[in-house]
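Per your request, structure below.
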């Protein structure tokens, strides 16, 4: 008899095991802090600073089927499909302390098992607190800014544009309003004649346990060829829908979902020995970053961190792994009712009050990647930061593109992609 493999759900709203009876109890406050701090190095728990890597190790161990000892059968981590690679790496590293055999899978890999249609003809919708993420031929995020019916219509538009035969809707019980939104999406999608499968917490557990029992790779099912006219009823009503935005996230394998076989050779995924990240082979060049009330795309292999010390505002920084002076900075501020002209006036006053020569090239009517914005350049000893500032709804978003003096080409592509994709969410 083979050793039992532990499968753990890590995010979006909880950390729990999906394979067996509950392990040792864990404080929900600690679990919440663990998830909230995944992009940080240190978190405050009960007023005490705790290393985030330590929090994740403790959280995963408390959710393992053998919380008091090593996991002999291996560990499978299931994470939100839209998480950036930096988050996946944090969880994978923590899981590697539980077992020498760790498999990391996107959530859509498990959800695909609920569909009786071929994976390449199935779209998955993952509902999160501030987004509904549609994963198919491309990945599209719809902000949850408005009431569920309006969000559902925009999700249906995104799905119709991909031309699937079936839709699997993921509605985690720990995500606020997920069940209501999932029901609205199901109604909107069914009206176009698509097959819809709703997956709640209980169904997700069934899918996980079924995956553990599979002895071999399922035979791929033939792809269903659909008429492009299928779903035109939904597309016809999409012209007036609010903008959704495409995301370049790590690719999700589209072949039939396979069994939980043995991990590859040590180091085969570029992670710690024995840790296999399922989507590592097809990783796209950019990934999806959600910070506070802002979402944008950044280079997938650029580590991110929150910066709260030193000069400047608190921000998230994504840094090139090959050149430490090349980076992106993202800050945000609530500015209900502020216009771009108002933003320009506010920034001009702050710049005029700063020491001469620190902020230069101020342009109240600038543009980056075709987006109207206030632009200026921050001059530091070892690098320059070209700032692009704009307003999206009630949020002011500032994106700083850092490079060595005269070396802007090194950050240009990442900068334009970040500015072009940045949106306020969850408003």
């Amino acid at each position: 008899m083979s050793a039992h493999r532990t499968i753990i759900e890590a995010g979006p709203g909880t950390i729990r095991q999906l394979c067996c009876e509950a392990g040792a109890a864990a404080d929900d406050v600690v679990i919440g802090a663990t998830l909230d701090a995944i992009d940080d190095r240190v978190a405050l728990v009960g007023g005490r600073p705790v290393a985030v890597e330590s929090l994740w190790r403790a959280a995963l161990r408390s959710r393992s089927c053998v919380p008091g000892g090593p996991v002999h059968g291996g560990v499978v981590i299931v994470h939100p499909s839209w998480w950036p690679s930096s988050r996946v790496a944090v969880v994978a590293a923590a899981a590697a302390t539980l077992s020498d055999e760790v498999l990391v899978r996107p959530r859509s890999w498990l959800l695909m098992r609920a569909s009786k249609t071929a994976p390449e003809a199935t779209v998955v919708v993952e509902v999160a607190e501030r987004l509904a993420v549609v994963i198919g031929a491309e990945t599209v995020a719809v902000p949850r800014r408005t009431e569920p019916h309006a969000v559902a219509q925009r999700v249906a538009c995104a799905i119709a544009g991909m031309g699937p035969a079936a839709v699997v809707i993921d509605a985690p019980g720990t995500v606020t309003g997920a069940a209501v939104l999932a029901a609205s999406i199901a109604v909107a999608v069914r009206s176009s004649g698509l097959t819809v499968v709703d997956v709640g917490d209980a169904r997700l557990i069934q899918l996980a346990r079924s995956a553990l029992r599979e002895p071999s790779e399922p035979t791929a099912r033939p792809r269903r060829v659909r008429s492009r006219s299928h779903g035109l009823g939904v597309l016809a009503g999409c012209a007036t829908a609010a903008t959704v935005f495409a995301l370049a996230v790590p690719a999700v394998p589209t072949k039939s979902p396979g069994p939980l076989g043995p991990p590859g050779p040590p180091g085969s995924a570029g992670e710690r020995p024995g840790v296999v990240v399922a989507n590592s082979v097809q990783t796209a060049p950019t990934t999806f970053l959600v910070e506070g009330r802002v979402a944008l795309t950044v280079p997938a292999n650029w580590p991110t961190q929150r910066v709260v010390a030193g000069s400047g505002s608190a921000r998230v920084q994504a840094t090139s792994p090959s050149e430490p002076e090349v980076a992106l900075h993202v800050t945000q501020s609530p500015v209900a009712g502020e216009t771009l002209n108002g933003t320009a006036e506010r920034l001009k006053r702050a710049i005029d009050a700063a020491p001469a020569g620190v902020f230069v090239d101020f342009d109240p009517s600038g543009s980056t990647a075709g987006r109207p914005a206030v632009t200026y350049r921050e001059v530091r000893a070892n690098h320059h930061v070209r700032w692009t500032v704009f307003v999206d709804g009630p949020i002011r978003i500032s994106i700083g593109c850092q490079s060595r003096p005269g070396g802007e080409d090194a950050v240009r592509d990442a900068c334009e992609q970040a500015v072009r994709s940045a949106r306020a969410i969850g408003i």
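The CA atoms of residues 14 and 32 lie 7 Å apart.

Regards,
D.
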